[in-house]
Amino acid sequence: MNHYNSVLIYTSRAISLTEALGVFTSTAGGIKYKREYTTIEIPFTFNDNKFASVIWYYKKRGSSGSLITIYDVNPQGESIPVDSNQFTGRIEFKGDFANTNRDATLAIKDFMKQDEGNFTCEVRGPKIRRQTVTIRVTDPPEIDRSVKTEQVGCLGRLISITCEASGDPEPDVNLIGPDGIGLPIKGFVLKEFGTYRCEAFSRLGNDSRNITVSQATGISLISCNICSYIVAIYIHHYIN
C-alpha cells in the first residue's frame, strides 16, 4: 500500500550554508519550514518485526526516469552500500529499530531547490509497504533589492517607481500611493509627494517596501522648472 503526503518547504533567499539554522521536523504528517540549505528529516515508522530491509528511494521532481536508491539499511541498523548519487555524503539515518514501532526516519543535509522530488520509504518483509513524501522548495514573496527607498520627482511630470518582487509561486505586485489608491507600475503622473508602497503577495505570504518620493533638487529641479516653463509658454501661445 502506498501513502502520499504532499509537503511544502518554505525557504528564505540569500541564505548561505553557514548561515542556515534549524532542522525540519515532522508534525502530523507534514514538515514545518525553516529555510533552504538546512537539514530535513523525513519521518517513517512501521511495526513489522520480520522485515528484511528498509530502502529509501528518490525520484526528481518532473523526472520521467526510474526511482534512485539513496539509502538501504538492514534490521540491525547497518547501512548497505548503494550507488553514488546526488545525496551521497549528505544522508544520515536517524531511525531506531529497537522499539516495537520501528523508526526509519531519514535526514538529508543541505537540502536545496534541486533536491525537490518524491522520497519513498519501502519496508521489505512478508509484505512490502511503501510511503511517499513529495517535497517542494518554495519561496515566499520578496521585494527585489533594486527597489529604492527614496526617489525624487516633479509634480505634474511622469515618474516611474520600480516595484518588483520574486518568489515561487510568482507573487502579485501592486504599487500603492499615499492616498491608498493603486497606481500603474510602468509610470504615472506625479500628483503628490509622500510615501508610496510596493507590495508583493502570494499564498505563501507577503512583503512590502516603502518608497519616499520628494521634490527634486539641483539639476533635477532645474529640469523640472525648464519643462514647466516650456509647457506654460506652449499653453500661452496655444490659447492666444
From TrEMBL:
<keyword id="KW-0677">Repeat</keyword>
<dbReference type="InterPro" id="IPR013783">
    <property type="entry name" value="Ig-like_fold"/>
</dbReference>
<feature type="domain" description="Immunoglobulin">
    <location>
        <begin position="29"/>
        <end position="138"/>
    </location>
</feature>
<dbReference type="GO" id="GO:0016020">
    <property type="term" value="C:membrane"/>
</dbReference>
<dbReference type="GO" id="GO:0007157">
    <property type="term" value="P:heterophilic cell-cell adhesion via plasma membrane cell adhesion molecules"/>
</dbReference>
<dbReference type="InterPro" id="IPR013106">
    <property type="entry name" value="Ig_V-set"/>
</dbReference>
<dbReference type="InterPro" id="IPR003599">
    <property type="entry name" value="Ig_sub"/>
</dbReference>
<dbReference type="Pfam" id="PF07686">
    <property type="entry name" value="V-set"/>
</dbReference>
<dbReference type="GO" id="GO:0007156">
    <property type="term" value="P:homophilic cell adhesion via plasma membrane adhesion molecules"/>
</dbReference>
<dbReference type="InterPro" id="IPR036179">
    <property type="entry name" value="Ig-like_dom_sf"/>
</dbReference>
<feature type="domain" description="Immunoglobulin">
    <location>
        <begin position="148"/>
        <end position="216"/>
    </location>
</feature>
<protein>
    <submittedName>
        <fullName>Muscle M-line assembly unc-89-like</fullName>
    </submittedName>
</protein>
<keyword id="KW-1015">Disulfide bond</keyword>
<keyword id="KW-0325">Glycoprotein</keyword>
<dbReference type="InterPro" id="IPR051427">
    <property type="entry name" value="Nectin/Nectin-like"/>
</dbReference>
<dbReference type="GO" id="GO:0005912">
    <property type="term" value="C:adherens junction"/>
</dbReference>
<keyword id="KW-0472">Membrane</keyword>
<keyword id="KW-0732">Signal</keyword>
